[in-house]
Amino acid sequence: MTLDEQRHILNLDCGRYEAHIKGIDASEFPVVPTFSNQPVAARIAAEALQSAIAQVAFAAASDDSRPVLTGVLIKFEREQVIMAGTDGFRLAERKVEVTNSGAAEQAPIIVPNRALTELSRIIASGEDTVEIAITPNRNQALFHAPDVDLVSRLIDGPFPNYAQIIPGQYSSRMVVDTASILKAMKIASYFARDSMNIVKLKMEPGSTDGLTPGTLTITANAAEAGDNLSQLDTIIEGDGGQIAFNAKYVIDVLNIITTPQVALETQSHTSPGVVRPVGGDDYLHVIMPMNLFK
């Protein structure tokens, strides 16, 4: 292996094989900022950060028609960091406590979804914390762990004001076993593939004396594939009702919820549905409905 420094060519010679690889001058490589001497915006437990990325990043857009939606919004507050991702049809928000409690608030940043996904992959599970810093010109974010540093560009532009689409109240709240509804939704999705992935949910409250549980009926149908119906026992608060969702969106969020039970809050068949893990208030997921009911 020899290097021609003048022409920037690396020669590889081995037995009856030879190759020449052309390079460029090292001075043309972009300057990579280092974490040293950068003010720390937040320190987050590595396990909590990995969990937050898993619960938010999948909701970001995969196409570049609106670049800001391909990133994850990170808002810094004194006691927590709020991460949010949306593709315009669904929204995921996760709150994560910071270990440097009382840190000064900073302006939000938008980190590319792919960068956060890669960060989650390379963070060792045994590491204590991950530190986040932002360069002075606010065009790059730095993530520092004991064994790895990751530098990512930031996406410039206004992130949607998603708070206005999160319903402030609900007319019906259903609590159901997470594994059971996930299984039923996966079965329904096979029949929904040929009908725009539409799955219908009908919620019927139980008896007022509490002796009879409520019922969730999940249906899907397609002209060529056929149809199916699944029923689950649930706890329903309010009047119940029916709503239709894209099956993929529901399955995606159920796959990342780790609590035994999950809650679905609705107002009407035309209003967004809110999915929350039962027993935790640090995560919510909003799904826009498909308007099929008159």
The CATH class of the largest domain is identified as: Alpha Beta
Spans of 5+ residues with little confidence (pLDDT < 50)?
A: none
Instruction: Output the CATH topology of the largest domain.
Output: DNA Polymerase III, Chain A, domain 2
Per DSSP, what share of the residues sits in E-state strands of 2 or more residues?
Answer: 35-45%
| CATH architecture classification name of the largest domain | Roll
Number of strands: 19
Q: In DSSP terms, counting alpha (H) and pi (I) runs of 4 or more, how many helices?
A: 4
How are strands sequenced across the largest beta sheet? 8-5-6-7-19-18-17-12-15-14-13-16
Query: What's the N-to-C terminus distance?
Result: 73 Å
The secondary structure category is alpha+beta
Number of structural units classed as domains: 2
CATH superfamily of the largest domain: DNA Polymerase III, subunit A, domain 2
